[in-house]
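Holo prediction — fe (ii) ion.
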Amino acid sequence: MQHDYPTPTHGTRVVVSPANVVLGSGAATEVGEYASLYGSRALVIATQQIFDIHGDQIIETLHESGIETAVYTDVRPDPTVSNIEEAHELWRTEDCDVIVTLGGGSSIDTGKGVGVLATNSGSIREFGVDRAGYEGVPNPTPPLVAVNTTAGTGSEATRSIVVTDDETSTKFLIVSQNVVPDVAVEDPELTVSLPQSHTAFTGIDALTHAIEAFVSVKSYSVSDDYARAAIRRIVDSFPKAWANGDDIEARTEMMIGQLQAGQAFTNSSVALVHGMARPLGAQLHIPHGLANALILPYVVDFSAMAAPEEYAEIARLFDVADDTESDRAAAKKASDAVLELCTNVNLASYLDEFGEVPDREAYLEVVPKMAQDAVDSGSPANNPRKPTKEDIEDLFVQIYDDALAADSPRRTTETR
Ligand SMILES: [Fe+2]
């Protein structure tokens, strides 16, 4: 529920943020009170799996605050145009006035999409950055309360929506200040039930957001501060939260870290890793975070010498370098530090369970298309070292040989 903001024309920056962040154990019990500030009929949006775990608690708090509810629980892990259209139909027929999402990025992005359709005419596809450009949603959207259950995509703090086109199985991006949630509810207790695999996927996604925001050509002082804080928190707490899901202190730190990572990239940008992760994820049918994990160390290695100061600081935030080393020497250590973290949370071991890796020949056939999709997304242009399409093809091949093939070094060593 934002407004029709002007485009900054005098070198000013707009710091994007949800209007309210409710943070800490027990925050979920306050969902009803916050939603009642905005409306009296809530459309609750979730995946069935998450609704089965947390739905009763959220519905109860809404009812206690006098809010009537309609519920949409058909959200897919990568939400589709159909998800948004179906949920919007329920919004309309149930005459709702506030959106409450329960879940991670998939539910939040569906909720944001419903908001777009509620106050703007046209199909959701028309608001993609490839068609409408950035800030392509003209009208303010209905109030949105995002109850986060992962740590995470940071979508509760961003102006982005990622949608899968049912017809082409490709993802498109919508970016507008008009879709930033009004309330982000960050209750770490809700992440305790997150399976270890999804703790790994969402944690590495958050780390990737922070690193990409920090090195992006669009970064600036405020996004850098968010990114530094996020990297430090995630480095310290991610392995702890992964190893012991009940460690509420680590879960809390990860919840704050992923929020700050979301604030970092929505005020800067993502870059080459995300540009490559979307087509790789679609090709291998793997979760977004796992795609990031497979790519991140290679892109850090590829980019480090183009921005040695930034990558040196990343290495220092990882505590693998200190101030006595030159920036170039420190920057060279960033890639190994990232790879070690991925190894510590056992990421490559999830490939067989969550994905389908084609043989090398079949993979090589789709590499040019994946590289073109990456370029077309616009994200690689934000990278400190701007890759050619051929550079991206080479990276995809290197990733296959090092991390995807059954006998690749990462798959044979990345086990605990
Ligand atoms: Fe991401």
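READOUT: The longest strand covers residues 41-46.
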